[in-house]
Amino acid sequence: MTAQSIDALMSAMSFTEKVGQLNQRLLGWKALTRDGAGRLVVTDELKREIDRWGGLGVLYGLFRADPWSGQHWGNGIRPEERPEAIRLVQEAVLIRSAHGIGALLSEEAPHGHQALGGTILPTNLAMGATFDPEAVRQAQEAVAAELAASGVHIALVSGLDMARDPRWGRCEECFGEDPLMASRMCEAIVTGMQGEDRSRVGRGGVAVVLKHLAAQGEAVGGRNGQSAIIGTHDLHEIHLPPVVAGVKAGALGFMAAYNDIDSVPCCASPWLLQEYLRDELGFDGIVMADGLAVDRLVDMAGSIPASGRAALLAGVDVSLWDQGFASLERYADDEVVVAAVDRSLRRVLELKAMFGLLPEGCNAGADRVPSGSSERIAVGRGSVALPKAEAIAEAIARTRTESRTLAGECLTLLDGAEQWNGIGACLRDDQSDPIIVTGPFADDMACFLGDYTAPLERTQITSVYRQLRERFGERVLLSADGTGLEGADWLNAAAVVAVLGGTSERSYDSAFADNGAAAAVAEHGATCGEGVDLCDVTLPWGQDTLLDRVRELTEAPVVSVVVSGRAHVLTHVLEVSDATLWAGYAGPYGPQAVVEALVGDAGMPGRLPVTLPAYAGAVPIRYNDRQSAEHVYRDAEEPVLLPFGFGEGSLQGVSCEDLKVTASGESLHLHLKLHTDGVTDPGTLNVFVRRVGGTRIPRLAQLVASVYVRDKSRGQWDVDAEVPVAALMDEADRAMRIHLWVGTAIPSDECEVVLERGNADTVYVRQTV
């Protein structure tokens, strides 16, 4: 591909055709339907959309299946039908357009592909509990291979948002409350899906659009899409590090968020989308608006067309479902708009070239079709790559293996480490004493899946109850609400497993907002996810009361398994239970992973990615706030139940010795020696600091290094980590005292390091205590 060939293509296009390339207006599942024989056929709606623009820019969600789209196993596109679906859509685009430009296909992949048969990973909050970017990278690489094998080009992936307020329903889409870990996970997403230096884009990988830019998790009161009231320093220190990491890793796209920052909407912010993202960070890909976000600018811009113009001029390149960008063609005489359309068009065409979607001579990616997984066919002036069903099936099998691995890694033991082995022994005992499974999610699968998921195949549906029943047979009894069993069953029980928490499941009779968010939630419907913000984050549906009733019925050990997508108040759960396991939304293999941990077949290496509040009224509380919430509320003097980074199962039995700190260039080098008396399960070693000095009030704690330890050898082993000096000292600081410790966000066994800047701005360690 040469710049000249793109120039020539652009010069041959009308203004309407150019605007059409920037539109992603059509909902993909409306592009195809079935004829009387059940075969897929192109809809008139798709034909009209192509004819309107003389082509098609981006098509969203061709394979999406969920209650909002109305697509399910009875009417949606099955995995083996994806090649035919791609052929029909791309042929229609190429036949009906004048320039031989294929359509980019984008799909939702916040935690796996949201399609029938598409692999579901644990949600981001659960993956955040792994503190294992390498495992996330491998899983995202597998998801990208699945998407690419299916003919998809763009993956819309959550990763930028920070879980700053548990009342926000989209906390499950965040990797946690810490910017360093979110940054490392975003880097893992990009390198996994696109390859190093974008090496797999068009070669078995996809382009990543990271969402949401920016500070959406800071919205007032945890109310989705509302204003983020935040200062410039905190914006850069908390919410923008994942953006920086994404750009450095080579992300080809970002999605502008719904919220405003200090009254300026993200999708209409020239500072955010141009001055910062492009000029300062050097981003060279596309900016996409969130669904209908452009049209929501109408109160600011005054009209739908003016909304489209404002977003375009601010730096949005591609729309999503809105009418604002579809109205840009009326600005054909506006020189500023014409220039901006050409700017965005070039970015879209350059991305299309990576996937071989342009006419011959314009492509950078015609040679990027993975051998054996697809073939190209000529249509009109262009050509299209067709996937093969066998390659799709192979890719799905690999992704499911990665999902299974992550499900085990995210499990986090909150309490009961000393009792855990004894409880497992009770479960494994061949005695006839019953094992009772209770709680609203005892026999539920959907609670593990999170939002943005397609319906599972019947063979995948299971639950904690069914997994235990499979292992221990008729000993396992079900009492979801604590009733229906004989008193003797409770008195003689070997153990009780209570499956508690919340769910993001949407039913097919649910009501939805125009962007697919939950609009109305039934009494026992979704308790989390987009559109389900809560003012009370105690466990819903009287689950604390249920635990009390169970405790009255039995003296058997009670193990509570908490399945959730936000930081619920678990104070009473920890008080009543003998042991408590946090599972997040661990994905389709969550029930299996939970049971393996219960019976002692697997460890629990996870750590909390968020702070757990002790009281609902104390939120938000974050480990890296500047002021402590302790002893502030007269009715809740200790508002933190468990700190960020807590996990009794992670590296249990491991002690840290001989911490050494040295300065080298722009980094501090940390060297730690770990010691164990026996084989230990893998887990995460987190290093925190508190700064003393400088010109700002320091944060209570700051995660500066995280190392996932996989070595299970006996005795001792060394761990090394690098900490950028910029994370510890502002440029103007000449000296700084750093209190450093290993473990959770609560200080313990602190080491004090004194840093000083030399004459050439070289930072060195003056003293370590």
UniProtKB/TrEMBL annotation:
Residues 432-646 form the Glycoside hydrolase family 3 C-terminal domain. Residues 84-350 form the Glycoside hydrolase family 3 N-terminal domain. Keywords: Hydrolase. GO terms for molecular function: beta-glucosidase activity. InterPro entries: Cellulose_Degrad_GH3, GH, Glyco_hydro_3_C, Glyco_hydro_3_C_sf, Glyco_hydro_3_N, Glyco_hydro_3_N_sf. One of its GO terms (biological process) is glucan catabolic process. It comes from the Bacteria. This is Glycoside hydrolase family 3 protein. It comes from Bifidobacterium pullorum subsp. gallinarum.
